[in-house]
């Protein structure tokens, strides 16, 4: 099916996240939401002083959290007004790396293996040492956080009491992307491989070597297809989520892509687009 324009933007340095039917967009210096059903737009009155590439949007049922280098910003999901901010680090030695959240806490990796846990109700932060290298991606499910680090490890971290529970050597190089889907974990590495693990045992189930010729990211799963995108290779590739067998490649790429039902959402310099994905 043809690619459709969703809405206009002002910069390719755009970061997105989708919750239910609402697309949240960090477009250069402004934050806005776009309801994919009603097409209503809500724009935050807050303006970011800097843009940059070290940003990410995460959310729970009540708040959005925007990671921006060493700072985490909190926004009301209903109004998009900024409610609080926390300065976590000072410079490139202490900036925020991977980040995720649940209804009670925000979990932040700190460069070189540190970890900061923000209690949402009190606003207080606790700091921990988890490993010896940076965790550039993480996600949470139930009582655990799953993270990949530069030392090529896949980490399982218990939320309460907060501690590192498991660390396995997942790849030869940086384990840079972690996706939890159903009872499986999918990881992507700087060694250009994709791996699939059992969520409970962390047993390796499948591997796809040389998945891309250059650096790439895991985007999500649609119709039992694992979707990966590479800015360097200027393409998006589709793999069977069961076997990791390559299925197709399309010349679609952007800095930040996400999935919505049976669609991929992506952008260029001027627009955000949607495209239906079929096997």
Detailed description of the structure:
- With 279 residues, the protein is mainly β.
- It is built from no helices and 28 strands.
- The protein has strands at residues 4-8, 14-19, 22-27, 30-35, 41-47, 55-59, 63-68, 71-76, 82-87, 96-101, 105-110, 114-119, 125-129, 135-141, 144-149, 153-158, 163-169, 175-181, 184-189, 194-198, 204-208, 217-222, 225-230, 235-240, 246-250, 258-260, 263-267, 271-276.
- The strands form 7 sheets. It has a 4-stranded antiparallel β-sheet with strand order 1-28-27-26, with no helix packed on it.
- The mean pLDDT is 95.
Task: Tell me how many strands there are.
Answer: 28
Quaternary organisation of the protein chains: single chain
- Lateral arrangement of strands in the main beta sheet: 1-28-27-26
Question: What is the CA-atom radius of gyration, in angstroms?
Answer: 18 Å
- Number of helical segments with 4 or more residues: 0
Strand-residue proportion: over 45%
| Major β-sheet profile | 4 strands, antiparallel
Structural class: mainly beta
Order of helices and strands: EEEEEEEEEEEEEEEEEEEEEEEEEEEE
Tell me, briefly, the overall form.
globular
Question: Mean of the pLDDT scores?
Answer: 95
The rounded distance between the terminal residues' Cα atoms is 12 Å
Q: Helix coverage percent of residues?
A: under 10%
* Low confidence ranges: none
């Amino acid at each position: 099916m043809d690619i459709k324009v969703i809405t206009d933007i002002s910069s390719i340095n755009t970061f997105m996240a989708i919750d239910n039917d609402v697309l949240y967009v960090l477009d250069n210096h402004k934050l806005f939401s776009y309801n994919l059903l009603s097409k209503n737009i809500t724009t935050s009155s807050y303006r970011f002083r800097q843009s940059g590439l070290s940003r990410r949007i995460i959310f729970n049922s009540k708040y959005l959290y925007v990671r921006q280098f060493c700072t985490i910003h909190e926004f009301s999901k209903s109004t998009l007004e900024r409610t609080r901010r926390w300065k976590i680090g000072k410079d490139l030695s202490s900036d925020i790396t991977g980040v995720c959240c649940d209804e009670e806490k925000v979990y932040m990796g700190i460069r070189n293996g540190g970890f900061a846990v923000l209690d949402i109700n009190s606003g207080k932060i606790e700091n921990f040492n988890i490993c010896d290298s940076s965790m550039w991606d993480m996600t949470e499910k139930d009582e655990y956080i799953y993270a990949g680090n530069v030392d090529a490890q896949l980490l399982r971290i218990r939320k309460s009491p907060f501690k590192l529970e498991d660390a396995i050597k997942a790849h030869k190089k940086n384990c840079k992307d972690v996706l939890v889907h159903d009872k499986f974990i999918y990881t992507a590495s700087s060694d250009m491989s994709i791996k699939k693990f059992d969520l409970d045992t962390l047993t390796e189930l499948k591997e796809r070597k040389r998945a891309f010729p250059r650096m790439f990211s895991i985007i999500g799963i649609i119709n039992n297809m694992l979707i990966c995108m590479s800015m360097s290779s200027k393409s998006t590739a589709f793999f069977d989520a069961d076997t990791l067998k390559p299925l197709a490649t399309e010349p679609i790429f952007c800095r930040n892509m996400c999935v919505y039902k049976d669609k991929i959402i992506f952008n260029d310099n001027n627009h955000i687009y949607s495209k239906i994905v079929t096997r």
